[in-house]
């Protein structure tokens, strides 16, 4: 049998997760701005990209719209490519040889 508290529990959990992940984005942005080294900034940007993907998935769960899952997949791919490009730039000094 279905418990009548399940939708309310899911909504509360998703909202709490959205707040938590948004706070993590703020903390990562501090590291991007005041990071002591460039690799620290790259890792923080990658963490922000991952958190934005998590926000998109949580928003898709909250609104029951599958479009945000597609958006999160595209953001994950772009974030991965950007991280690889910046890491190559930091280590070698150029992205395209």
General form: elongated
Tell me the strand percentage band.
Answer: under 5%
Helix content: over 70%
Distance separating the two termini: 61 Å
Radius of gyration: 17 Å
Pattern of helices and strands:
HHH
Number of strands: 0
Unreliable parts: none
**How many strands, what sense, and barrel or not for the largest sheet?**
none
User: How many separate domains make up the residues?
Assistant: 1
| Helix vs. strand class | mainly alpha
In DSSP terms (H or I, runs of 4 or more residues), the helix count works out at 3
Give the rounded overall mean pLDDT: 88
Element layout with pairings:
Elements: H1 6-34, H2 38-63, H3 67-92
Characterize the structure shown.
- This protein is mainly alpha-helical and 97 residues long.
- It has one domain (6-92).
- Helix content is 84%, strand content 0%.
- The protein has helices spanning 6-34, 38-63, 67-92.
- The chain is elongated and about 60 Å long.
- The mean pLDDT is 88.
Keywords:
97 residues; mainly alpha; 3 helices; elongated
Explain briefly what this protein structure is.
With 97 residues, the protein is mainly α. The protein has three helices and no strands. Helix 1 packs antiparallel against helix 2 and helix 2 packs antiparallel against helix 3.
């Amino acid at each position: 049998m279905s418990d009548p508290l399940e939708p309310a529990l899911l909504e509360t959990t998703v909202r709490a997760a959205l707040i938590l992940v948004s706070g993590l984005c703020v903390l990562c942005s501090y590291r991007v701005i005041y990071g002591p080294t460039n690799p620290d900034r790259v890792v923080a940007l990658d963490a922000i990209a991952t958190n934005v993907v998590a926000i998109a998935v949580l928003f898709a769960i909250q609104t029951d719209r599958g479009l945000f899952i597609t958006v999160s997949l595209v953001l994950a791919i772009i974030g991965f490519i950007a991280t690889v490009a910046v890491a190559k730039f930091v280590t070698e000094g150029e992205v395209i040889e």
